[in-house]
Specification:
The complex is a heterodimer of chains A (511) and B (501).
Chain A: E1 3-14, H1 40-43, H2 54-66, E2 74-75, E3 78-81, E4 91-94, E5 101-110, E6 113-126, E7 130-134, E8 144-148, E9 155-161, H3 168-185, E10 197-207, E11 217-222, H4 225-244, E12 252-257, E13 262-268, E14 278-279, E15 286-287, H5 290-299, H6 304-315, H7 319-326, H8 329-340, H9 349-371, H10 382-393, H11 399-412, H12 416-423, H13 431-444, H14 446-453, H15 459-470, H16 477-496, H17 498-510
Parallel strand pairs in A: 11-12
Antiparallel strand pairs in A: 1-9, 1-10, 2-15, 3-4, 3-14, 5-6, 6-9, 7-8, 10-11, 12-13
Chain B: H1 9-17, H2 23-41, E1 44-47, H3 49-64, E2 75-79, H4 106-113, E3 117-122, H5 156-163, E4 169-173, H6 180-186, E5 189-192, E6 213-217, H7 220-230, E7 264-268, H8 278-293, E8 297-301, H9 309-324, H10 342-361, H11 364-376, H12 383-403, E9 409-413, H13 429-434, H14 440-444, E10 449-457, E11 465-472, H15 478-491
Classes of the chains: A alpha+beta (511), B alpha/beta (501).
């Protein structure tokens, strides 16, 4: 039977606010010493009360607007009850039936063909503390755990999609688009490794053409775009096998084990928590004034689609380039810094913008991808890239050599000009300096010369290559071409009328 | 015993201002009185005599420097449900028997900033759940009027300490009557402010939408002074109203302040129903006559949704408490179960330790309410219980709103019964719950309520026992309630009676 995959994603995003969700503690807990960003509120001490962080609400509204959500006038917080030592109050302040933003959509560019994924809701809650488990206990008590409360109370925004994705590829595209959007908005670092951007997936299969959903499983513990993609593909296969064997998919929570590349059962439906949600009595409902929403809308930064259009318009880029360059905010920012710079002497303004794009999307992208490095951390600064383009355009180095220089800038962080000078990469454009190499090449390859003289033009190419080799790539290719052809043509002429030339020589000698 | 033990705040303040007494002398007198009677009253969980003396000395310096506030140098007891920095705060629970907060509750902080002298922390029902102070994990408090009887609750320690001449005034908390009912049973004055008027920051939560800190004192004016000190917006409490403390003031004794002409009082019939003791009814009816004589008009009114109040309260309060008390699991602070043998401990694991901690750390009434609330919020029951209770809450609010279209305040008994013998109702939770039937609706609607002494009930089997009259007003009508209570107090002598301790 043909099956259709149905995927919905829940994404948890830590917001980049100054202070935590409900107290004045700083939210930048990542680099802080253990248990140093704490107070009675985020420790859940008796008598402490939460106060809403207005900036976190603003960021959530901003995200909602960017996702084309509507922002209802009334929103409130609720208590989600479950016991765990990382939850300091024994309940999490979250939002249940009246989230901040509802009914949105996100367009995911999949090879140029846009797909629209529904966004059910965006709500706000608090993160929990971080636990570290030590199964091998000291003192014979079979293990122990430590709690770092720094993360407790960090604002956490949850974006819940509709079950609109039909493949692991789409799920990944949705995640990457959402991730990019959040960075455009500047509301989160979006770092997946440190848990600032976390994803859970609901996935089910159904017979192709069916309107009803199949039984779903919830997949957790996916820490990269790649693991989301792999875990969902694994789960598609697993569910398909269960169904094809005549079995039934069990509704449960499954964890992705990165090392073994499988999902394993964590909790069945029967074991699921009853969270006993009820309105948070410590926080009065919020009346979101439409004026405020409009103010926030007015402050929305330029997002990827608009920026892409602007890149085409202002920099004359092809749509393909503009799309790739605006897929991430960091990439687009880098591009604008480089493209906006005054071109180096020798570079025409109109070609500068396109050249920056070419270098970024080919050679620089390749170097970054090798190390899985973000362009924001690129060792090659936009200034260096522009300098390098200038060197190539001025003919100081060849394009081929330019690529080598880029690699060395990437490795060392040194300026391109300095590398070119120190390594003696300067392109040879002096005829006198190249001519000995031309002679040497012709003398060393009499057969090639003979072939050329016999009418085989392509032999010249070989000889040009030999000259380039002899000059360690520093000779200007145009010049080498010209000199090689010139030398060959001369020999041709010499062969056709040896007497004439001998006469000429003599004649010359007679003078 | 010293006459200093029976001063009101106003009187003490006058003596301090005239330098006829020092705060150190007042404090020493209070500590001596505590020494003398505490064994038979047991209103304190923790005494802080050294801290009190140090605070008294500091207060005397404030007085000498001319930097005194109304409460400077005057000894107070603080119910042990409010966090006090460096002073253990137990909530009368084994769970927090050794818990020392790192910060002061806002209300406490505001008293301390005025230079108040804290004698110690008052006994109460565990986590403020109860109406008799018998649910304290440490010991019951006895009623100063009859040591065989309860002082009421849950702020039983607060009311008893004021009635017994130990503290000049006290801070209590009121979720369903916990300031007013013990004030009534001990013959002192207690005020439950409008919800949001006093910050709850640092008040260990029982039922967050109902809890409110309130003063207990020997006079209405003392309650006004204390409220003035603790009321007003606190940015740490999102439910605190955005108001400055208005500064509640009342004319001094002897001034012409007894005039209640033009004031419209309502008597809700539902509060004079089955279960009301005759002696209490008579005392309140007599008080109504006095209020009429002062010029107020009195009419019968009806609050038909009153019948839902008890059920409504016993769903909302336990629901909120089931979440509020979830944090006590023995992991982070407070009591942690230690009854395991070496082998058991190795096998038990985290979840068992948390369960054992809660099983042994909470008393039976707290456990009962946590279970009630957990049940009421459970999937499949939420609509039938919690949601229904919220609807009833709206009806009760609307009743009050409607009746305050026609009257300025309501007069009811504070408690349908006078102080009852220790142990009499501990076996029957519903009987215990019924004692709060007159006070619960006030919390449900978030209104202010004032209990003032209005007589005694004498009997063959017991000494005279105090009766309290409750005044209920619209939201933020504290000034009106204080004015009525003060006028009544000036016309009567009930508040001046001292127990035969």
């Amino acid at each position: 039977m043909e099956y259709e995959t149905v995927i919905g994603l829940e994404v948890h995003v830590q917001l980049q606010t100054q202070s935590k969700m409900f107290c004045a503690c700083r939210a930048d807990y990542q680099s802080a010493p253990v248990n140093s960003r704490v107070c009675p509120v985020c420790l859940g001490l008796p008598g402490a009360l939460p106060v809403i962080n207005a900036r976190a609400v603003e960021y959530t509204i901003m995200t909602g607007l960017a996702l084309n959500c509507s922002i209802p006038r009334l929103t409130k917080f609720d208590r989600k009850n479950y016991p765990y030592p990382d939850l300091m109050k024994g309940y999490q302040i979250s939002q249940y039936d009246l989230p901040i933003a509802v009914d949105g959509r996100l367009e995911i560019g999949d090879g140029g063909e846009g797909r629209v994924i529904g966004v059910r809701r965006v709500h706000l809650e608090e993160d929990v503390a971080k636990m570290q488990h030590f199964p091998d206990g000291r003192g014979g008590n079979g293990g122990y755990s430590l709690v770092d409360v720094n993360r407790s109370g960090v604002p956490l925004m949850e974006v819940v999609s509709e079950p609109d994705m039909r493949s692991a590829e789409e799920a990944r595209a949705y995640l990457m688009t959402l991730h990019s959007l959040l960075q455009y908005l500047g509301v989160s670092t979006g770092n997946m490794q440190d848990g600032s951007f976390r994803c859970d997936a609901n996935i089910s299969l159904r017979p192709a053409g069916s309107d009803e959903f199949g039984t779903r499983t919830e997949i957790k513990n996916m820490n990269s775009f790649r693991s989301v993609f792999q875990a969902l593909n694994f789960e598609v296969g697993r569910q398909r096998r269960v169904l094809e064997d005549g079995g039934r998919v069990v509704q449960e929570t499954r964890g992705w084990l990165e090392g073994r590349a499988v999902t394993v059962s964590q909790r069945s439906k029967e074991e699921a928590h009853d969270y006993r949600y009820f309105p948070e009595p410590d926080l009065p409902p919020l009346d979101i004034a439409p004026d405020w929403v409009e103010q926030i809308r007015g402050r929305l930064p330029e997002l990827a689609p608009e920026r892409c259009a602007r890149f085409c318009r202002d920099y004359g880029l092809p749509l393909y380039d503009a799309r790739l360059l605006t897929a991430s905010k960091a990439m687009a920012d880098y591009y604008e810094r480089a493209a906006g710079m005054h071109p180096a002497a020798g570079t025409a303004r109109e070609s500068h913008a396109k050249q920056v794009s070419n270098w970024m999307l080919s050679d620089l992208a390749r170097l970054l991808n090798l190390e899985n490095r973000d362009i924001a951390d690129s060792p090659v600064s936009p200034e260096h890239l522009v300098e390098l383009i200038g060197l190539v355009d001025a003919g100081t180095v060849s394009v081929t050599l330019g690529k080598t220089v880029l690699e060395e800038v990437y490795a060392s962080g040194a300026a391109p000009r300095r590398i070119v000078e120190e390594r003696g990469y300067t392109q040879i454009s002096d005829t006198a300096a190249v001519e000995p190499s031309v002679r040497e090449a012709l003398d060393a390859n009499p057969r090639a010369v003979a072939d050329y003289l016999g009418g085989k033009d392509s032999a010249a190419k070989f000889l040009v290559g030999q000259v380039m080799k002899l000059t360690r790539g520093q000779a200007k290719p145009d010049l080498v071409n010209q000199l090689v052809t010139g030398a060959l043509e001369r020999r041709k002429n010499e062969g056709n009328g040896a007497a004439d030339s001998a006469n000429q020589s003599k004649g010359a000698g007679a003078d | 015993m010293s006459e200093y033990n029976w001063l009101t705040i106003q009187e003490a303040r006058a003596l301090l201002a005239r330098r006829e007494v020092s705060s150190v002398e007042l404090t020493r007198a209070a500590l001596e009185r505590i020494e003398a009677v505490e064994d038979s009253v047991r209103s304190f969980i923790t005494l802080t005599p050294d801290l009190a003396m140090a605070q008294a000395e500091a207060a005397d310096r404030m007085l000498a420097d001319g930097n005194a506030f109304p409460l400077t140098g005057i000894p107070v007891q603080v119910k042990d449900v409010m966090c006090t920095e460096g002073v253990r705060t137990t909530c009368a629970s084994r769970m927090l028997a050794d818990y020392v907060p790192v910060y002061n509750a806002t209300a406490v902080e505001r008293l301390l900033r005025q230079g108040a002298v804290m004698l110690g922390k008052g006994n109460m029902d565990e986590f403020a759940m109860g109406s008799s102070c018998e649910n304290s994990a440490f010991h019951p408090t006895r009623n100063p009027w009859d040591a065989a009887r309860v002082p009421g609750g849950s702020s039983g320690g607060a009311a008893a300490s004021v009635a017994a001449g130990e503290a000049v005034y006290a801070l209590g908390s009121d979720t369903g009557g916990s300031v007013r009912q013990p004030a009534a049973l001990c013959g002192v004055t207690g005020l439950k402010p409008s919800y949001g008027l006093v910050s709850r920051y640092g008040l260990v939560a029982y039922a967050s939408s109902l809890d409110q800190i309130g003063p207990i004192g020997r006079s209405v004016a003392d309650c006004a002074l204390t409220l003035s000190a603790i009321a007003g917006h606190d940015p740490r409490d999102a439910t605190s109203l955005p108001l400055k403390s208005p500064g509640y003031s009342l004319p001094g004794a002897g001034a012409d302040n007894g005039d209640l002409r033009g004031l419209r009082l309502g008597v809700p019939q539902e509060y004079f129903a089955e279960g009301l003791e005759d002696g209490v009814r008579q005392a309140v009816e007599q008080a109504l006559a006095t209020l009429e004589a002062l010029g107020a008009s009195v009419r019968e009114v009806s609050l038909p949704s009153t019948k839902y109040a008890l059920a409504c309260y016993y769903i909302i309060a336990p629901s909120e408490c089931s979440a509020n008390l979830a944090r006590y699991d023995g992991v982070k602070y407070g009591y942690s179960y230690d009854g395991y043998s070496y082998d058991e401990k190795a096998a038990a694991g985290m979840w068992d330790a948390m369960e054992q901690t809660r099983r042994h750390g909470f008393g039976p009434e707290v456990t009962r309410r946590i279970m009630l609330g957990t049940f009421a919020l459970s999937a499949g029951y939420y609509d039938a219980y919690y949601l229904k209770a919220q609807q009833a809450r709206t009806l009760i609010r609307q009743d009050f709103a409607a009746v305050f279209e026609t009257v300025d305040a309501l007069v009811t008994p504070t408690s349908p019964v006078v102080a009852f013998p220790i142990g009499e109702k501990t076996g029957d939770p519903v009987q215990m719950y019924l004692i709060d039937v007159c006070t619960l609706p006030v919390n449900i609607a978030g209104l202010p309520g004032l209990s003032v002494p209005c007589g005694f009930v004498s009997g063959d089997s017991h000494p005279p026992l105090p009766v309290g009259m409750q005044l209920i007003g619209p939201h933020l009508s504290e000034q009106t309630l204080l004015r009525i209570g003060h006028a009544y107090e000036q016309a009567t002598e009930w508040h001046k009676q001292r127990p035969p301790l």
